[in-house]
Amino acid sequence: MAKAAAKESAAAAPSVERRPALAGQELSVTGVTLAVLPPAQRISLRAPDASVAALSKALGVNLPRKPKTSAAKAGRTALWLGPDEWLVIDEVGKDPLADCAEVTVLHSAVGISHRNVAISVIGPAAAATINSGCPQDLSLDVLPVGAASRTILGKAEIVLLRIAADAFRVECWRSFSDYVFTFLSEAAGDAAA
Amino acid sequence: MIATFRIPGAGRLKQAETARFSFDGQSYAGVEGETLASALLANGVHLVGRSFKYHRPRGFLSAGAEEPNALVEIKRDSARRTPNVRATVQELYDGLTAQSQNRWPSLAFDVSALGDIASPLLSAGFYYKTFMWPKFAWKNFYEPRIRAAAGLGVAPDQPDPDHYSARFAHCDVLVLGGGAAGIAAALAAAETGVRVILADEQVDFGGSLRFESGAMIDGQDGFAWAQGAVATLRAMDNVRVLSRTTAFGYYAQNFVGLVERVSDHLQNLGRELPRERLWQVRAKRVVLATGAIERHMVFADNDRPGVMLASAARTYLNHFGVAVGRNVGVYTANDSAYAAAIDLKKAGIGVAAIVDLRDNPTGSVIDEARALGIEVNFGRAVIRAGGKLRVSSMTVQPKNGGGERTIPVDAILMSAGWTPSVHLFSQSRGKVAFNDETKRFVPGTYAQDCVSVGACNGTDGLSATIDEAYAAGAKAAKDAGVKNAGANVVKGTKPKVDASESWSRGMLGAAPGAGPDTTVKAFVDFQNDVTAKDIRQAVHEGMRSIEHVKRFTTNGMATDQGKTSNMHGLAIAAETLGKPIPQVGLTTFRAPYTPVTFGSIVGHARGPLFDPTRKTAIHPWAEAQGAVFEDVGQWKRAWYFPKAGEDMHAAVDRECVTVRKTAGLFDASTLGKIEVVGPDAAKFMELLYTNPWEKLEPGRCRYGIMLREDGFIYDDGVVGRLAADRFHVTTTTGGAPRVMNHMEDYLQTEFPHLNVWLTSTTEQWAVIAVQGPKSREIIAPLVEGIDMSDGALPHMSVREGRICGVPTRLFRMSFTGERGFEVNVPADYGQAVWEALWAEGQKHGACAYGTEAMHVLRAEKGYIIVGQDTDGTVTPGDAGLDWAVGKKKTDFVGIRGMARPDLVAKGRKQLVGLKTKDPKVVLEEGAQIVGDPKQAIPMTMIGHVTSSYWSENCGRSIALALVAGGRDRMGETLYVPMPNATIEVEVTGMVFFDDKGERLNG
Amino acid sequence: MLLIRCPYCEEERPELEFRNAGEAHIARSADMAATSDDDFEKFFFIRSNPKGIIYERWRHMHGCARFFNAVRDTVSDRFLMTYKAGEPKPAKLPGAFE
Ligand SMILES: [Zn+2]
Fold first, then answer.
1. Strand order in the sheet with B380-387
2. How many domains, in total, are found in chain B?
3. Ligand 1 centre and the CA of C68: distance in Å?
4. Within-domain flag for B458
5. Where is the FAD/NAD(P)-binding domain (chain B) (predicted)?
6. Do residues B8 and B127 both lie within one domain?
7. Which of A20, A173, C57 minimizes the C-alpha distance to B748?
8. Which of A172, B91, B481, B832 lies 20 to 30 angstroms, CA to CA, from B429?
């Protein structure tokens, strides 16, 4: 059913330049490094329980069913955002929208590759940096490696994915990326404390 | 100047560096690591401020956060000027500049101190009585003068150049207070491996161990033990130790706010360090180890500089190595002041006499004092302090009357006993209980997962305190239910107390020296200048509850929140009322425990981080073109694109004309976009919008209206059907988040049976509107896979294809009345596609236009803007949009609300056009409309102007207005009264340009 | 800042992630168009605003984005329990909140 929106990966190459928000921005201070990550393919996937198996198969990654978890395989990560909602991120250039278009079970797949910007926050002070504006408990017991959650950072909504004990991926909407990167930059300067 | 009161060999600052500082322009030398108070005392300076109401000279009462008197202004530069800094807390740094407050022209001679003499006018409740007559005088005479004379310090008048940081933190056990109790609790909790945070407001941990010379723990001096224990804690990964950190607020579910003062003690403030750091801590368990605060004695002129708490004098001596005088008197009702006398005597300072209000106390400290040759008097009171700018004597009398004796002294050390610090416990909504035997309020009923230990719990004696605290720390860790033994946990044993001091007993209320003589000023609350007499007077004037007494007298309502005064005030009120203390009640303590700066509350949310500033993908292009931007919610939108020499009017006129003559490009990216996907998508749309959707063919668009359940317009926008099961919905820029919330609400809670999902795609797509007769010629060369002929792509249709090789959703639609398109492309390509379209547009003379021209162009066509022409009380019928309501529909949100009697009544305000009789006059938006300009004031207003512009295309002004019964008034003349003139207007239809709509295909 | 247990996320999360959405268990009529004026008034305008136990709707706006129901004591501002949207009003309330 998603065919209508699944055409991005097909046919002609763009004749114009892609200009991602904050492209290439980085900041490194004691204890933490921030970097705006390269563009990725993303979909917002919505589906009832009955469709999860078929969609998992088509996507090549098992859509997680447990709150605040994620699953990853071959450069593709599926983050549980809600009981019928996943954020699927593909970092190896394969379009999950096209994969879902082949699936006939009930679901909604919407391309949001350009909606989100990803920032990596890495280093021993990464959690403290994020905790400057995020009220969640980021200790490993409560947010282990692989855990994912939509939450807030200051006055912006973010999706947080813990990729290692001291490494996070922060996703936000494009127009909030400047705010989020600036916030993390200011917080990073104080996070080693 | 030589620091003459520094005692060689005393104190703990031996290795410290000299710090130069100034106070009221006078230069002094101090020692780094001591407080400003200590440094001033070392230089023999006691007079540091004037009191709030009577402008009486004041010195230091305490050596800590409870200080009511010694408030000074610390000035670093013209922007860094902090008033009301407690000199007893401010750490000295080289170059510190401090000034006294509340005095003019000088501290030693303050004109306003005449208020002290005129004080019968300033008695309790004076605000409510004295200045009430004559009525007008309050505003014009009394208030300005009182405001000038009163108040504490002067607020800085420049933006705060410092920065502040913030951190959310979580732990298993949060220990508040770093004295013996807090340290013991933290040790016990930390060794289990749970996450522990230990915070103390002082620089050095140890609490009262800073001054108690008689405490020995684990074979060491108490203070030394504390330093070692804290070093052990700091070395553990599971422990965070925060000094200079005040827990100021205890909120629901063990959420505690702490402020860490990061750099106020440093000479140089770099950008790298924040001034303060706000910690918002969520703890599974909280251990309150907040100690106790010594009370003063309430006697006549007990506020003279040099009269201070006994424990403060000990802190200055034992911790900072400073003597508070050369010949001190002691006035006490408990044991702990004896230790002060003993310590000072041993340091070579004269102790003139100890005056003990108690009749026949016994104990080893008393014996020791006597053995040192100190004169000890029982059953006697200090009835008066002599001196003005500095205490010069104490007058002693048997407490039941008799002969007076005046003893020369240069300081009086006093102690009425210790008040448990139950502030945080009280903030946690715990209920205190009165212990009648010890005359103390102590924690009674707990409301949260916390426990009080040590002096704040009314536990006496160091040994009992450490037993209690160590057990509580271990239990808190166990109750937190976490088993995550840290890697480098140090297992220890319970600290052993080898020697300790007695703090027992004391008294509450006024001592004999506090009156009843009404001319006597025996202070209860130093900061608000409340005397024992004021409290008595409040009771005599009918105040019965302590809450009333407090408000009438302002006792305990100053910035120190009555840390030293509450219990005395309560006891005096109780005595006057002849009631037991618990029946008079204790006021509830509220956050903050000590004042908190706005900076630390604001934290990062300043400047660019005050609120997110959202910019579109095309923003950099508009910026480079010199666009002027306007704020629309959080978005920056290009308002107009002035060319050299153009003002706003000229630019907007040119943009409007160009769009209709050739074409214009407009950045519409901020429009909200929601993708509605699923087999029941059309059904859902039917329920959320007034329009019919089932029969809308894929590839076609429709203007949709969304109502609230009450029948009023909530939002509007063009909706394209991409497929049977997929709609591309657009919303107003400002409405995007709330429309999404509204749709989700209905989908999740009212229509959960529908198989449909909503996804916000606002930011996925950059949207370039190309409008005008040449729009198709501009777009067509760049498009692949879409037949752009009128037959294949008629007005109000949508196709998917490519533009510049980029996937696009190409809408044929118009918000200008011209042939128009909206090109949706993935956001990262937005600017490049815009540039390509711009290059094509240049071949045809197209312009870029901003939101102002967009507004004018749509108004020329009578297209409404929700939120401007509607205000939440406008129905589709009122807006002339009945045609957009599906007549055959049986349900949609708002269907019933629309039928409410008032919403179908005659005479409702309806949207109409207005033309001014003078075409050059442009109405003001919001201006009121009347039928008869000659009627009496207040006139009957029948409507207001919602949109108004100069229309260069029409060669005249145009306006939209909501007017009662508007559509029945076509051609009528109405009036818009303005301050300088009344403007005549004619009621017209809403379409001012191309009313046949021919240009949509032109 | 309160902690609120989201019945979908199955854990307590900071209040900053949530948004209140008014009183719960106010049913929208299946035949809305035929609702009487009185019934519409009750449905749209009248709210109980109790001192004590209130049943209300919340949305885990910046979390799983689900609407759910909560039982809160307006006197103590404590959440007694939360449950999923569409579930009936709980017959029995937990005695105390932990
Ligand atoms: Zn949730």
1. B380-387, B391-398, B405-408
2. 6
3. 9
4. yes
5. 172-447
6. yes
7. C57
8. B481
Q: Which two three-digit tokens encode residue B751?
A: 């229509």
**Where is the domain boundary, B371, B395, B415?**
B415
How far is B471 from B490, CA to CA, in rounded Å? 17
- Measured CA to CA, the distance from residue A44 to residue A87 in angstroms comes to 5
CB < 8 Å to C2, chain A: none
Does B664 map to a domain?
no
Residue for token pair 């006792």: B555
Which of A46, A69, A155, A157 is the mutation pick for testing C, counting most C CBs within 10 A? A157
Closest CA to B561 of B58, B896, B67, B32: B67
> Integer distance in angstroms from the first to the last C-alpha of chain A?
51
> What whole-number distance in Å separates Cα of residue B442 and Cα of residue B851?
64
Residues B740 and B712 in one domain: yes
Kind plus residue range of the DSSP H or E element containing C38: helix C37-44
Provide block-wise average pLDDT over 10 residues at a time, chain B (1002 residues).
Answer: 78 84 96 95 94 90 96 90 93 95 75 62 61 62 63 80 95 98 97 96 96 95 97 96 98 97 86 91 98 96 97 97 97 94 96 96 94 97 96 96 95 96 96 92 96 96 97 96 70 92 85 78 94 94 91 89 92 94 86 93 96 98 98 97 98 98 98 98 98 98 98 98 98 95 98 98 98 98 97 97 97 97 98 98 98 98 97 97 96 97 96 98 98 95 98 98 98 97 97 95 85
C67 alpha carbon – ligand 1 mean position (Å) = 8
Put simply, the answer to whether C67 touches B744 (Cβ < 8 Å) is yes
Check whether residue B405 and residue B314 sit in a common domain: yes
> Residue A20 falls within a domain, yes or no?
no
pLDDT single digits (tens) B709-736: 999 999 999 999 999 999 999 999 999 9
Q: Is residue B634 part of a domain?
A: no
| CA neighbours closer than 13 Å in the CB half-sphere of residue B17 | 9
Same domain, B287 and B436: yes
Say whether both B484 and B523 belong to one domain. no
> Among the three residues B527, B556, B578, which one is the final residue of a domain in this structure?
B578
Residue closest to B765 by CA, chosen among B817, B732, B810: B810
Characterize B349-366 residue by residue with b for buried, 16 or more Cβ atoms within 10 angstroms of its Cβ, and e for exposed: bebbbbbbbbeebeeebb
Domain of B959, CATH number, reads 2.40.30.110
Residue B166 to residue A133, Cβ atoms within 8 A:
yes
**Three-state secondary-structure class, residue B365:** helix
Give per-residue pLDDT as tens, B283-336.
999 999 999 999 999 999 999 999 999 999 999 999 999 999 999 999 999 998
Percentage helix, strand, coil for chain B under 3-state DSSP, each rounded to 5: 25, 30, 45
d(CA B810, CA B793): 10
Q: Say if A131 falls within a structural domain.
A: yes
- Cβ of C35 and B252 within 8 Å? no
Range of the domain at A146: 26-191
Q: B448 and B572, same structural domain?
A: no
Which domain CATH number covers B261?
Answer: 3.50.50.60
Report yes or no on A38 lying in a domain. Answer: yes
CA of C3 to the centre of ligand 1 (A): 12
Residue B272 covered by a domain: yes
Cα(B11)–Cα(B324) distance, rounded to whole angstroms?
A: 13
Residues B48 and B138 reside in one and the same domain: yes
Q: Which of B195, B193, B194 is nearest to B170 (CA)?
A: B195
Closest Cα in chain B to C30: B891
Structural domains counted in chain A: 1
Contact call for residues B171 and B192 (beta carbons, < 8 A):
no
What's the A98 CA to ligand 1 centre distance in angstroms? 29
Residue B521 identity (one-letter amino acid): K
- Cβ–Cβ below 8 Å for A67 and C13: no
Show the domains of chain C with their CATH numbers: 3-84 (3.30.2270.10)
Do residues B537 and B486 share a domain?
no
